[in-house]
């Protein structure tokens, strides 16, 4: 390992004044919500869409606001194929194995694919498919599972989709002959049952969630193979510790559930869950960026990782999306907004870096990527997951009227685009590294193998994990970029990504993951194709990747960003502003 550049020593000083503020905040929220919900019990009737916000581009030319029917139809066909293969071979299981036609059940066996993909079917108007999905959804027994339940994954994939289906029905997107009002009420009941089953997750002194729930005992539990064991020399703890995404990615789903049921408990618990992040009593090294992981019993950071990548990402996403979703009268929207703005400024200052061009005659361009800070070191590595950031920052730039965020977001999106266009498959890798041009003289990662050096020479970055997991984040940001800037190049980029995925991932029973986006020629693999594909298709492929691709080619009034807020799993919720 090379030498490291040191950050200034970070401090974790307790600030007693802000513990008081946190307590006061929590009390005020609780009281406010109780009074509000009981004085105006909410919404069992359909309401016309709220006024919303001005997010989408307004000055469309040459019909660019209308659907590109041909391309939208191709993406819709990919969804139909995905559904059909699953229905024939794995109905009721969590996920199909797209190469072998087998199945897996790692999401408690409740039919994760059916639930997670249902909102995609709803937006695409796949009514037969949606009707079959709803028949399954209303029959799931969420009170039972042999395996421990992961409250984070369960909230974003199952709960989020069910709440969104109710919103889509209430807004008139789903017609009555597909979901009856009785079925709509049953879906909401299922959401309530599931949310109540997840309740024990929040039963901690801080309100931050347990990593798992044991349904048979109605009890929160730790997660033995915790990632935080990674560095036992540095991290000593007796309690489970979680990253900000676990604590901070349940408020959208639960705020909507409170609106639909009139019960304030969901908003209360999910607000308490991220309160120790938003109103932290620890002084962070970088304004707005959480030091993590965090002990769920004491609320203290037990590590010094700060980034917008896996495990942290959707906390930052939900800060801005909560300010869009909630009624303006909700308390604390200003705190969320300021925290988000601070976090984005810190991202720009401490985490983002441009790739240095390799020595001549190599590739000459520089690209902006998002690294990580870990303890005193700068990790010059980004994963595909962090490509959600351009879309989320663009959303904030429009909503908060911050043009400099827009410029920054579009530069980050160009970086993600560059990872896609640089590989032979035209699909970007799962993670990559680069040599920063400015500011970080001794980065953690250097290219060592012949392959890494060659990749760097050709494109200015080299892959760390060269696989593709069917992930949505890049096309998700393209969707936001198209809807917010109105620039047609983003539709073109999305189409290039879709064509590449269609060409390389389509498998006998669905869409497979790729082992190596740099080696996709069949000739480079054994004659049975073994190894080229991974026999995995996660539910986010249908819930997110196909949805965002399709929406990019749909009429811009479908799931209009002026009225809808997408959860981190791409389930649209109605704004309350
Ligand atoms: C709310 O949190 C409490 C712990 O503070 C927990 O006992 C309860 O089950 C939770 N309820 C819901 C619906 O989340
Ligand atoms: C945001 O950053 C400023 C300094 O740039 C700091 O004074 C302020 O307290 C921060 N606010 C939040 C909510 O992090």
UniProtKB/TrEMBL annotation:
Domain of life, per UniProt, equals Eukaryota
Q: Name one GO biological process term.
A: ERAD pathway
Q: What is its EC number?
A: 3.2.1.-
Q: Which residues hold Ca(2+)? A: 568
Active-site residues annotated for this sequence: 153, 313, 430, 473
Give the Gene Ontology MF terms in alphabetical order: calcium ion binding; mannosyl-oligosaccharide 1,2-alpha-mannosidase activity
Write down the InterPro entries for this protein, in alphabetical order. 6hp_glycosidase-like_sf, Glyco_hydro_47, Glycosyl_Hydrolase_47, Seven-hairpin_glycosidases
Q: Which Gene3D superfamilies match?
A: 1.50.10.10
Disulfide bond residue pairs: 387-416
List GO terms (cellular component aspect). endoplasmic reticulum; membrane
Name of the protein in its database record: alpha-1,2-Mannosidase
């Amino acid at each position: 390992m090379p030498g490291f550049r040191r950050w200034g020593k970070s401090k974790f000083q307790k600030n007693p004044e802000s513990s008081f503020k946190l307590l006061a905040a929590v009390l005020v929220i609780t009281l406010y919500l109780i009074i509000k919900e009981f004085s105006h019990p909410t919404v069992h009737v359909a309401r016309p869409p709220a006024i919303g916000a001005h997010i989408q581009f307004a000055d469309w030319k040459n019909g660019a606001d209308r659907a590109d029917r041909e391309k939208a139809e191709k993406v819709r066909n990919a969804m139909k194929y995905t559904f059909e293969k699953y229905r024939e071979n794995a109905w009721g299981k969590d996920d199909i194995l797209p190469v072998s036609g087998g199945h897996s059940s790692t999401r408690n066996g409740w039919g994760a694919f059916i639930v997670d993909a249902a909102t995609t079917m709803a937006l695409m108007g796949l009514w037969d498919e949606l009707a079959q999905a709803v028949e399954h959804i209303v029959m799931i027994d969420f009170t039972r599972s042999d395996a421990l339940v992961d409250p984070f994954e369960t909230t974003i994939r199952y709960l989020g989709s069910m709440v969104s289906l109710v919103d889509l029905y209430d807004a008139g997107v789903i017609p009555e002959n597909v979901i009856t009002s009785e079925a709509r009420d049953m879906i909401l009941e299922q959401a309530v049952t599931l949310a109540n089953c997840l309740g024990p997750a929040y039963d901690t002194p801080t309100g931050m969630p347990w990593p798992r729930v044991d349904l048979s005992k109605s009890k929160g539990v730790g997660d033995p193979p915790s990632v935080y064991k990674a560095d036992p020399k540095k991290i000593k703890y007796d309690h489970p510790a979680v990253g900000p995404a676990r604590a901070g990615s349940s408020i959208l789903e639960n705020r909507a559930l409170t609106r639909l049921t009139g019960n304030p408990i969901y908003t209360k618990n999910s607000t308490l869950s991220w309160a120790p992040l938003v109103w932290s009593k620890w002084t962070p090294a970088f304004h707005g960026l959480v030091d993590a992981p965090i002990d769920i019993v004491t609320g203290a950071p037990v590590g010094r990782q700060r980034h917008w990548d896996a495990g942290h990402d959707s906390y930052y996403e939900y800060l801005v999306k909560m300010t869009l979703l909630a009624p303006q009268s909700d308390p604390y929207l200003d705190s969320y907004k300021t925290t988000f703005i601070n976090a984005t400024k810190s991202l720009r200052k401490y985490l983002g870096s441009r790739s240095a061009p390799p020595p001549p005659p190599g590739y000459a361009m520089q690209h902006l990527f998002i690294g990580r800070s870990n303890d005193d070191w700068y990790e010059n590595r980004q994963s595909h997951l962090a490509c959600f950031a351009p879309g989320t920052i663009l959303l904030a730039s429009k909503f908060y009227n911050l043009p400099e965020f827009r410029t920054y977001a579009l530069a980050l999106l160009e970086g993600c685009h560059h990872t896609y266009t640089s590989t032979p498959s035209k699909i970007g890798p799962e993670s990559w590294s680069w040599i920063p041009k400015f500011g970080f003289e001794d980065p953690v990662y250097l290219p060592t193998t012949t392959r890494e050096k060659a990749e760097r020479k050709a494109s200015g970055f080299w892959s760390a994990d060269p696989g593709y997991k069917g992930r949505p984040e890049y096309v998700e940001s393209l969707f936001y970029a198209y809807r917010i800037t109105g620039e047609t190049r983003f539709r073109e980029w999305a189409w290039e990504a879709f064509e590449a995925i269609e060409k390389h991932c389509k498998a006998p029973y669905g869409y497979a993951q790729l082992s190596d986006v740099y080696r996709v020629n069949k000739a480079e693999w054994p004659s049975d194709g073994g190894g080229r594909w991974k026999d995995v298709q996660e539910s986010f492929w249908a819930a997110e990747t196909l949805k965002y691709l399709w929406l990019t080619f749909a009429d811009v009034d479908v799931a209009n960003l002026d009225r809808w807020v997408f959860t981190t799993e791409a389930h649209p919720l109605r704004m309350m502003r």
